[in-house]
Design brief:
By secondary structure, this protein is mainly alpha-helical. It has one domain: Orthogonal Bundle (Lysozyme). It contains eight helices and three strands, in the order H-H-E-E-E-H-H-H-H-H-H. A three-stranded antiparallel beta sheet has the order 1-2-3. Strand 2 and strand 3 form a beta hairpin. Helix 7 crosses helix 8. The protein starts with 13 loop residues before the first helix and ends with a helix.
């Protein structure tokens, strides 16, 4: 299934500069830990889909009664997911207890970093086999992105799986030209 994907921001705009700088940083941090290219691409594809590569992104808003609110460009209510890969509070509490990284507080303060999110993700991958690290080894980028989506993110949005694969195809085709010109 091929889904239409949103165009990347213009690299000459401030939004584009930030987007591609964050992409380059994610790539560099993961490569410094000898992460395979397919998993780097999966991280970028899913980060783009979940947060637009914004480490301070908030999502999955709920109202005072605990009902999930429909997506809105101007959300109201209380966010329940935070950062590049939109971690839920329970996972963030575990990450904080085990690593000291308080991503929820950092995002709430507008001070989260790509480094925090990558460190948290790598800690989770190394310490919890259910998040799919072993499964992603040796996969092609499209498959790795879909595995990241289902096992690590556990995304529930319609078409998330297919969109992750399509975004991975784009990152895979343009990674060197965009980030390493």
């Amino acid at each position: 299934m091929t889904l239409p994907i949103t165009a990347w921001p213009d690299p000459s705009t401030s939004e584009g500069v930030t987007f591609f700088r964050n992409a380059g940083l994610i790539k560099s941090l993961l490569e410094a830990q000898s992460v395979a290219r397919a998993i780097v691409v999966a991280a970028l594809a899913n980060g783009e889909r979940e947060s637009g590569l914004d480490p301070n992104a908030k999502g999955d808003y709920i109202d005072a009664s605990g009902r999930v609110l429909p997506w809105s460009p101007h959300p109201v209510g209380t966010p329940t997911s935070f950062g590049l890969w939109q971690h839920q509070k329970l996972r963030l509490d575990i990450i904080k207890a085990k690593t000291g990284l308080d991503i929820e507080a950092a995002v709430t303060a507008g001070a989260n970093t790509v480094e925090n999110d990558v460190a948290a993700a790598m800690w989770e991958f190394k310490n919890n086999p259910r998040y799919g690290w072993a499964m992603m080894q040796g996969l092609w980028p499209w498959s790795a992105a879909r595995a990241w989506c289902t096992s690590f993110e556990q995304a529930g949005a319609p078409n998330a799986l297919d969109l992750s694969g399509e975004l991975a195809n784009r990152w895979d085709a343009h990674l060197s030209a965009i980030i390493d010109p």
